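Hi V.,

Quick status before I head out on leave. The structure for the redesign project is tokenized and pasted below; the design run finished overnight.
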């Protein structure tokens, strides 16, 4: 086991070096107009307007990715030929950095606005009044020019003179964007971008705090509908279908579609130098390693408290399963069947968006509850099976020696059951730890989400994922080894 622990990170590092060594130039794609689209491999964001449009075409190979970051990464890596999305999905400076170019500007255009719940009419009116005011004063044009016309290598920043309020009811915002110039993270809880500045100035105009959390494009509407957020943004097109579900602010931008391709003769280089550049770009530049550290801490907190609470609940499940009351056993059976039948991700989203949507519990607490429930169902059965495997004669012998039933369980039955429990408990604990990687779906910035945030800024599809994989492997290994030592100590 020790050899495997040492060799695995080494093997991953070797794979990374080989991948960089194999990097090189790719043949340019001929694409000068929409007439060149047939026969091309085209990638779009899942569920976007462009997804619906391209699905009807039979003359292309259509690929779908959940985020713009993954779409761009697939284009950079050469897996697709063309990426269709909003023209503002990448700034000119980012296009040059990633070796991508906007070759064709689509004919379609869509008005973009901030989305609100149907009942938040007053907040929509306040937002529209704010937008009208900054247009009249010329401030809107200043903000627009700062972000939407930037062409330098240096990213602009939101001015420091915007008032920030900490008292009052916060405006909770769901961000379904992660690329410049619209909105992107530069640190945990720190945001930049065109739409971000508009929202910051709006919050200041109504003297309320602003809370921004990242949501996937599919999760943003759910967060808004269930009251988790007050505003959903991310270059959201104002369409008739969406207006049936939400209220929208007045349009603040008219967005055109665009086609992106990989720049001709672009090469990231190869070998050790390319590896060092990726290391610097993904971890050192802009102190991006902090995303990893903060995400790791969030993952450890989630895993620890889920194990603690899940183990306590497993004891309750075990007690119910072994109860002499039939109705308790029946409830336990239904609970276990439910936990076994629901995928972890589905349960997490149901708990967050439906069952506990109207509570004041934050996402981390809801995630801990959800993981604990699933863990308790599996481990509770393990507890019950281990206890039942201890012969009844052991209990009878303990009572014959003068122990009470409780003392007999603690001093006679339980020590024997623990030997059978710990190996299976270890497997479930490691599985729970790895399952925490899905919490990004409810806007928790764990270790996996940290890697996604870095990828959204660097568009490096490989390096951040490998870093996250190595960390998960090391932590899962250490957790397993710790429980193995506990098993050995109990057996000795």
């Amino acid at each position: 086991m020790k050899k495997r622990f040492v060799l695995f990170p080494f093997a991953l590092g070797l794979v990374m070096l080989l991948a960089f060594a194999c990097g090189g130039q790719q043949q340019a794609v001929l694409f000068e107009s929409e007439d060149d689209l047939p026969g091309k491999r085209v990638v779009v964001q899942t569920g976007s307007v462009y997804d619906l449009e391209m699905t009807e075409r039979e003359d292309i190979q259509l690929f779908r990715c959940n985020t713009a970051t993954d779409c761009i990464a697939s284009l950079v890596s050469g897996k697709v030929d063309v990426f269709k999305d909003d023209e503002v999905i990448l700034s000119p400076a980012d296009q040059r950095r990633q070796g991508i170019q906007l070759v064709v500007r689509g004919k379609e255009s869509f008005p973009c606005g901030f989305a609100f719940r149907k009942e938040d009419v007053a907040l929509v009116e306040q937002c529209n009044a704010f937008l009208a005011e900054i247009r009249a004063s010329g401030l809107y044009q200043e903000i627009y020019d700062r972000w939407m016309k930037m062409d330098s290598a240096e990213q602009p920043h939101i001015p420091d003179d915007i008032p920030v309020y900490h008292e009052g009811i916060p405006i909770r915002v769901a961000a379904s964007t992660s690329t410049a110039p619209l909105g992107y993270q530069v640190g945990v809880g720190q945001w930049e971008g065109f739409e971000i500045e508009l929202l910051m100035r709006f919050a200041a105009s109504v003297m309320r705090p602003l809370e921004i959390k990242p949501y996937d494009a599919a999760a943003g509407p759910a967060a808004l509908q269930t009251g988790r957020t007050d505003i959903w943004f991310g270059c959201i097109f104002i369409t008739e279908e969406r207006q049936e579900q939400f209220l929208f602010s007045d349009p603040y931008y008219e967005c055109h579609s665009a086609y992106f391709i990989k720049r001709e003769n672009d090469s990231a280089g190869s070998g050790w130098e390319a590896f060092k550049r990726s290391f610097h770009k993904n971890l050192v530049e802009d102190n991006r390693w902090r995303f990893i550290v903060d995400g790791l801490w969030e993952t450890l907190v989630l895993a620890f408290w889920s194990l603690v609470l899940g183990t306590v609940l497993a004891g309750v499940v075990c007690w119910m399963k072994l109860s002499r009351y039939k109705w308790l056993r029946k409830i336990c059976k239904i609970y276990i069947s439910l936990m076994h039948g629901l995928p972890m991700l589905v349960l997490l989203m149901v708990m967050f968006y439906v069952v506990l949507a109207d509570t004041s519990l934050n996402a981390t607490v809801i995630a801990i509850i959800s993981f604990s429930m699933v863990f308790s169902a599996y481990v509770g059965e393990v507890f019950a099976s281990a206890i039942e495997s201890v012969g009844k004669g052991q209990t009878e012998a303990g009572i014959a020696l003068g122990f009470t039933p409780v003392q007999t369980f603690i001093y006679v039955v339980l020590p024997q059951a623990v030997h059978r429990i710990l190996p299976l408990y270890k497997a479930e604990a490691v599985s729970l730890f790895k399952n925490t990687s899905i919490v990004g779906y409810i806007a928790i910035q764990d270790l996996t989400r940290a890697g996604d945030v870095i990828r959204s800024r660097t568009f490096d599809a490989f390096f951040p994922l490998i870093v996250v994989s190595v960390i998960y492997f090391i932590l899962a290994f250490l957790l397993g080894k710790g429980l193995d030592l506990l098993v050995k100590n109990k057996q000795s």
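Above is the designed sequence. DSSP finds 18 helices and twelve strands in the chain.

G. will cover questions while I'm gone.

Best,
W.
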